[in-house]
């Protein structure tokens, strides 16, 4: 799918996209996806030039990203914000990128039951994780880049390492449960 305008896709039950989703080159159009169940098998914003302006997934539900049969990293690239109120299940190693330092706001993120997956979040702005990471199915690794802040309200569980490149703000009592190492390159403070 190539967006030539900002779009809202709304369904009463399911949105399933088997291919990629891109904005027209250097146009950075926005996308809102609203359905109880959303499956995105192909990356969103496959290059910096075709990144979306923003991606919003409002309301509670289930968002599945990636394809277990695919190799390589699954990407969601936006110029600005990416927000999801849906619980996210990763079916590939995944990277969320905001090119202009937009906010990345997520609830809960888990791996699928096939294999632990890695998640990297890259934004110079604020990352807010209001639920647990790897609670139902642990991630393999979890990392954030330098710059900005990461606010955490739930436990973070990985089978291997956790790396926080930016400053961490604890919104509640929580546990960093890493099978290997947990590295904090910035400050760790309570809100």
Jot down its keywords.
24 strands; six-stranded parallel β-sheet; mainly beta; 191 residues; 44% strand; globular; nine-stranded parallel β-sheet
Can you characterise this structure?
Helix content is 0%, strand content 44%. It contains no helices and 24 strands. Strands 2-5-7-10-13-16-18-21-24 form a 9-stranded parallel sheet, with no helix packed on it. It has a 6-stranded parallel sheet with strand order 9-12-15-17-20-23, with no helix packed on it. It has strands at 2-3, 7-10, 14-17, 22-23, 31-34, 37-40, 55-57, 62-65, 74-78, 82-84, 87-90, 94-98, 104-106, 109-111, 119-122, 126-129, 142-144, 149-152, 156-158, 162-164, 167-170, 176-178, 182-184, 188-190. The N and C termini lie far apart (41 Å). It is globular, with a radius of gyration of 16 Å. With 191 residues, it is mainly β.
The profile of the biggest β sheet is: 9 strands, parallel
Number of helices: 0
Oligomer: single chain
Fraction of helical residues: under 10%
Distance between the termini: 41 Å
Q: Which structural class should the secondary elements be placed in?
A: mainly beta
Low-confidence stretches: none
User: How is the largest sheet built, in terms of strand order?
Assistant: 2-5-7-10-13-16-18-21-24
